[in-house]
Amino acid sequence: MVLPPKALHPAGEAVLAEKRPLSTAIEVETFAGKVHVEWDPTAAVTPIGQLPFFIEFLKLGHRFHPWVEQCPLHYESNNAPKKIDVLGSLFLSILSGHNRYAHLTALRGDSVNTKLLGMSKVISDDSAIRALKRMGETVTIQWLQNHLQSCYEPLLSTPWILDVDVTVKPLYGHQEGAKVGYNPHKPGRPSHTYHSYVMANTRLVLEVDVQPGDQSHATYSMPGLMGLLERLPKDCQPAFVRGDCDWGNDPVMRQLEATDRRYLFKLKRSKRVKELIAHAEWELKESTLALYGWKRARRVVVARRRLAKDPLIGLEYQRGGQRELALVEGPEDMRLFEYSVLVTNLDDELVTLMGHYRDRADCENNFDEVKNQWGWGGFVTQKLQTSQIMARMVALIYNWWNLFVRLAIPDKHHEAITSRPLLLSSVGRLTESARQRRMVITSTHGETLTIQRAYARVHEFFSWLKATATQLTDSECWQLIVTKSMEVFMGTDPPDRLPQTL
Asked: What are the domain boundaries of the chain?
């Protein structure tokens, strides 16, 4: 075999790959003509450019830094993410209205707010889930409960009402605690139940407990309720506890009566309750009632309201493929009125009691906002532990944002669907020159005058607070902020706990 002779010269020069610039303009045809579009991945911009005002609110109130420092999250590896990066990423995600861990990816290009929060990066969704699973459930819940209580504690000096209720969160997977229970909107769907405790008229969540879907009865809420009441100082207890007909049962009321606490609940229409309604001849009637299973008789109030529509004669339903008509039981007048029966151990007059229970309707608006506009409707993993932690974390950030919005616009409560575009969403560009950072904000909202007035009010108060904060403790600074934010709720008189020097 004869080999070919070796070449004296190389075949030719190697063809090098064509170099392309990092950013190339792209011509795009629009109705206004041709536009040259370029990508600039190095620009320090953010879609939530008004966040620095909220960051200053948390810094002057000493909320964010202690929350991060006291977090029971510990890593041993040098390659693990920092604690500030984990909590800061979850904070930005919850504040932005996300409801899935995968939505953290939308924040990873934000290099502005991460610097302002003291973060180095936005972590991935897998890192966030592993961090939540790494925390001990007992110590983590206690950590969040302490920060929730310190958030609303300055308001407890004013007489307040505690609303208790349970809401359902449908699930679509194989999660721990996914049980079929009471679910009026999606019957047969496994779910979790959120046992919630809210301060009436303030839209502040005091505590929340996540339980399986078949544990929606009020008896499952009593351990959380009694634990919350025991954690509160003696002079900061609610005026009374308020709940719907699920709470109007003997075990719940006996437990509250044993600790000398007041309550106002609604009763279900049992046989004896219907008999009491049949004898109601006035708009308000007071009586004493002892239902089957009750250990003692209790004060009840019957209220009726004339229906504006045509009287209801019967209900048509289908059973076994056959349509049937069920006539409404009771006297003829019962079909013309809507009846409500309340049970209470309060000494207030009848009109005041009905006004108290009518105001409870605002509690349902809380659930609608926190579930649909915040993260209570999402952030699900296979472990119930992560849902317990995220439910309280969402409630804490929800409280912080509500207090900040009340400080900026004190007239009324603004839900997140309104307050986020107004006070948070805008294009922000951060520039650094001569050791000075400059933030340029461009808002696309139509209510620019409202935004300017709101932040002028916030800036004026913060300027006064920074001049006064040197003589105050951290808790006194937060007390001043909360008092200013909720001055409509607390009235014109300053609370007794304000420092005497002020």
From this structure: 45-136+407-490, 263-344
